């Protein structure tokens, strides 16, 4: 196991109105992988994300970036945020400028880049999310799915090593989800580490390399997607459920219809259908 | 979101009529205004603190947190009263015994008055006090606007905090100039979203038969006459004791 | 800078409350008329009021590194007019006292006069005057917000001076004392508030 | 087929910024059933819902309630909204009062009920959604799922014959979805007609009696859930996809593993697993 790029150790945090949000949380983020933070509403996902980029400061515990304990003075936070980008759930919360290109340039300019450099970064970020054609459009006239992508572009333009996304697929229709995941995969291929929160177990199972299951402000289990989702009792106690594809694949194995190894269960509808087809071809031959 | 509001909704007196607490806090402020400060203020401070902590069950720590910011103001403001400024002979600052007396008086009165405010604010949801304004003849349109403001504050506050987090994530507060620009953008965006929210709320409420008035059931808290009487007696006793002490101290 | 609970002598507290009442009555009448003509105005005004509260809770960066809060007085007066702002301002001040322990109940009247009456009227007057003299929108907004802000603090200084005349040099001395302190801290903040309001209005007109 | 309780005929509507939202839309809502309006983002779902309760007035076409063409004067709208309740997607757009009980009382009081009657309605509505314990709680301190249920209670308290819900499960975790659907089923059992919009094909397939597929401001197809979802090309062109359970059940039938009739395909994970189990029991016997 390689050294984690981000490491949260024993985080505790309570909001000003005394709601305890994190209660001794430990998490490791492996470089270059996709980590899903899977948890029900109120399990502390968003609070954790705000700790991972230094927005919130834990009452106890610490966050390490590349092994270094992070500080909370201005300079440390600035450096931290250049390495770790955070995309919030609601794009309305993070689009402030009149046009798409202006908005995406916000981060690079704040990093102190020249106008020319910022322009390059904007073009690059928009292209990587396949929304270069939106550059001159007014932000308020975008569709919800477009706003989401522009918000992500605003972070990408800062070239962070880790991109953290809060519920990236929330509110998107199937087409929008597919489009977004394609763009994120492209991003990972270029070496970026991805962390995203979700309460969608099917999405986490289909799409994450690693999963951390959150409940009541703690990480209840962390492992590869398959390891983390194996225990249906744990999922139930975290107000979650077993992913549909995993449940059906298990039922089909139990009934003797299908064979697959625990190390490589089918994870998407496509994979499961393929498995069924192959088996019937075998049976016929 | 606000610690004060959280206590107001969840304290031992939650189900009692807000008029009772209004009488206690308001009566406290009144006798503090009418009677000699040096003897009245300490008694009021004592009574209100005991009522808030032992009566309503507000933790001492949270009461102190309530007092912290205004007390900070007091500590910076009061010393100014103890200093006199002589303009005749250039500008000369000097310690003034008379000013010091005023400063002490203001400090005592402020602390006592603050304890009254704390009792009321920490034990009574703002909306229940606003509802009482209707009885005082405040037009219902104003009262309805106040109640809506209360509700919307929490909504907009969350958007403001989230918006600032989003800007900070993109280094929006890295220098003074950028901070100002970010804040301006945040305020402009929040204002537009506030106005959008008003329009959406209009649609949402129209679906529920909204025709202009925002009439809702008022919570039923029975006014307890015995308790009102006890509060009256308590305030009377404080007044008498304060006057007696004042005469005794000369 | 709100005057805290209990800080003013009772007579002064009562007198400032009496001064505030007529402005509130006039403003309330205006609000009642507006809402009668157009019931949905309730939602709009409430949104504006809640927005003003939130604005006052935001921290603005200041040159010295310390933080202050935008008053939004100028912005509100320009957008909604000063008489409505008296009511919205008063509501915001009441909520600040009860939810944040900023200001107080006995000093509510004095704070209303400074922040919800004098500030907005000065801002509004400066805005109209500058515009009628042919000043650019940006200039008018800047001056309105800055001077509205300063007028608020000047009024607060006057209130404190009247309540606590200097033992040696009287009310004038006290005004110099309080005003001097405020001038040091508030002039830069008023300028910042002016700049901020210009940014906001520019963005609003841009959309 | 019984007479429709709501009928939209040839609705056309354009927003002030000239975006055409409805382009000759026809829809029928059968009494006592659950109808899902299934469509991608921007397909016109919300606009349609706002027409069904008289909030928006079509440029062309009309809406009939119990066979009557509806008017748009004040009295007609009030009567209409007493029969047809609309729950918006974001509960924050519908909750305005400080406490739950107060908020729920708003609709009944607008209907001209006495305080005592309104109080009964409030208790009833809260009980039917199993949130009676929230009555005295401040609205702003509720969780997202609780707010959703309170917003629904605010509509139920008006005792409408039809309840329309815009994306009722959006933003809810699996536990919250199950809870909400349970409450809605209970509502339907008491005779209420339910219409809900969604872009979640799995939800629509599992849970709706009837489905209308929306695309570009029109109803592309309306029928029973099974009929409406049969055509995968149509779904694709509407930016949707075939529901996972249906896709897998079809694959298993094609491979000869399962048998089921087109009239009664398995619609939930539970039903499909059950079918697989039964078959393996049969096979063993």
TrEMBL record, chains A, D:
Pfam family, one: ABC_tran
Role of this protein: Part of an ABC transporter complex. Responsible for energy coupling to the transport system.
GO molecular function, one term: ATP binding
Membrane protein topology class: Peripheral membrane protein
Sequence similarity: Belongs to the ABC transporter superfamily.
Xref: InterPro entries: AAA+_ATPase, ABC_transporter-like_ATP-bd, ABC_transporter-like_CS, ABC_transpr_CbiO/EcfA_su, Co_trans_ATP-bd, ECF_ABC_transporter_ATP-bd, P-loop_NTPase
Cellular component GO terms, alphabetical: ATP-binding cassette (ABC) transporter complex
NCBIfam families in alphabetical order: cbiO
Residue ranges of domain ABC transporter in the record: 6-241
Keyword Cell membrane listed: yes
Coiled-coil residue spans: none
This protein's name: ABC transporter ATP-binding protein
Gene Ontology biological process terms from the UniProt entry: cobalt ion transport
Keyword tags: ATP-binding, Cell membrane, Membrane, Nucleotide-binding, Translocase, Transport
Organism domain of life: Bacteria
Keyword Cell membrane recorded: yes
Subcellular location: Cell membrane
From TrEMBL, chain B:
Full protein name: Cobalt/nickel transport system permease protein
Record's signal peptide: none
Family membership: Belongs to the CbiQ family.
Cited CDD domains: EcfT
UniProt entry tagged with the keyword Amino-acid biosynthesis: no
Membrane topology of the entry: Multi-pass membrane protein
Keyword terms of this UniProt record: Cell membrane, Membrane, Transmembrane, Transmembrane helix
Membrane-spanning segments: 22-51, 63-85, 106-124, 136-157
Source organism per UniProt: Thiobaca trueperi
InterPro entries: ABC/ECF_trnsptr_transmembrane, Cobalt_transport_CbiQ, ECF_CbiQ
Gene Ontology BP term (one): cobalt ion transport
Classification via Pfam families: CbiQ
Domain of life: Bacteria
One GO cellular component term noted in the UniProt record for this chain: ATP-binding cassette (ABC) transporter complex
Places the protein is found: Cell membrane
